[in-house]
Amino acid sequence: MTVHFPFQNSYSALPDSFFARVAPTPVAAPRLIKLNRALAAQLGLDPDMLETPEGAEILAGKTVPAGADPIAMAYAGHQFGQFVPQLGDGRAILLGEVIDKDGLRRDIQLKGSGPTPFSRRGDGRAALGPVLREYIVSEAMYALGIPTTRSLAAVVTGEHVIRETALPGAVLTRVASSHIRVGTFQFFAVRRDTEAVRRLADHVISRHYPDLFRAERPYHALLGAVVARQAELVARWLLVGFVHGVMNTDNSSISGETIDYGPCAFMDAYNPAQVFSSIDEMGRYAYANQPRIALWNLTRLAECLLPLFSDEQEKAVAEAQDILGAFSETFSVAYQAGLRKKIGLFTMRDGDDALIQDLLDAMAKNQADFTLTFRKLGDAAGDPAADDARAEFMDPAAFDEWAKRWHERTALEPQTAAERQAAMHAVNPMFIPRNHRVEAVIQAAVNDDNYAPFEELVKMLAKPYEDQPEYAAYADPPLPDQRVLQTFCGT
Ligand code: AMP
Ligand code: MG
Q1: What is the pTM of this model?
Q2: Which of 233, 261, 362, 450 has its CA 20 to 30 A from that of 127?
Q3: 180 CA distance to ligand 2 centroid (A)?
Q4: Is 398 helix (H, G, I), strand (E, B) or coil?
Q5: Looking at the DSSP assignment, which residues form a beta bridge with residue 156?
Q6: Does residue 124 line the site of ligand 1, with CB under 6 A?
Q7: What is the pLDDT of residues 16-74, one digit of tens each?
Q8: Residue 260 CA to ligand 2 centre (angstroms)
Q9: Which helix (H) or strand (E) holds 96?
């Protein structure tokens, strides 16, 4: 028996300039530490086979499975606003694509599998900590219902990687609907290779937006579709308190999935200016800046597509601006609708936006925990005597004043208390991957080779909207001495 991957590769059939053919570098002693069995089955892979030693060798890049066509993808990107004409997969190798049980094409990529022609000065490797962080957070995002790349497996390599110290090396198997980024378009646009831009756009349309081939102007429609998906994605991030941390154009997916979990984190106390990443000194990627940055990234995408829009530059620019103009509206509609749901409103009335903003302002001023405030508000919707939410506010009176207005507003709707509570609990998670928990899990794995805390955290985060009383402690924000204020890329 061998492990069978039903590959059907399409990206590696594109012209040679799109990638470099490169095999993963074998590692010393691969050991599987986590397999996402449900995802494996969804991809048409046999979870039992992946758990054999041969499976671990494949997931570590030691053996290349039959049918794989391993490549490192070429891309460019703006990193913190600075353009780099060539980045590319420096430590990731796309094994190939499979069609999943829903008929969707999915990339299977090894991250940390050794150097590629795009590695520059990097070693092509990943350390265990960031691999576990990506596994935890990407799967948590999936369970929250937010578009994201997934994690199929994590293996330790039996080798060390040198960062500030020597750390256990690991490989993450990442699954994405594709790994095509804004930066992939930039790679060809900066080389003035319009034919390649067109080829890439056609590939993206057939893969992610097939209906658009019937549009009158498919490339315009493509930009519009990516704008819409990114606007909706960032709204979803804000609604759960997620800070991506490194929204460079090379980390901005054309499919609208959250991609590249580096220094990302969920905020505890609500703070619009929240930054976690140690390298984001200017707060470029702060929580509340994320919509603006998404639009900035989409504007870079639009620039790449201009030659496909029209030979007349001015006309093309005007058309692009028109399409980009939809971002704000799409974002606001998604964000405001999400907030209305978070406070349990079924209808729209004048004054709702102010009611919501006043809550957010009071939360910021009173350092209220973002997740728990909304969750407990749901409890209060079910039972007005349940006033736990007020304890999240430094000055509980600030909450009481707001809650009075809120109860008056919800009373104008016919839904029962139980209906409102159920609706609120369905959108306000009880559990998020709190930073201090993620750090603790990583420490146990890296320092003590103990994966029990990791397993428990992953299991708990799979049901973020359920109360799960046995895991109640995971809902708690960090104590002052447990707070993790900074995160690191770990590359
Ligand atoms: P990131 O900040 O993870 O999005 O990565 C930015 C660029 O650096 C990408 O081209 C990565 O492939 C590359 N890179 C990051 N870490 C490494 C590494 N350890 N070795 C080689 N390339 C890397
Ligand atoms: Mg990246």
Answers
A1: 0.98
A2: 233
A3: 11
A4: helix
A5: 31, 170
A6: yes
A7: 999 999 999 999 999 999 999 999 999 999 999 999 999 999 999 999 999 999 999 99
A8: 5
A9: strand 92-99
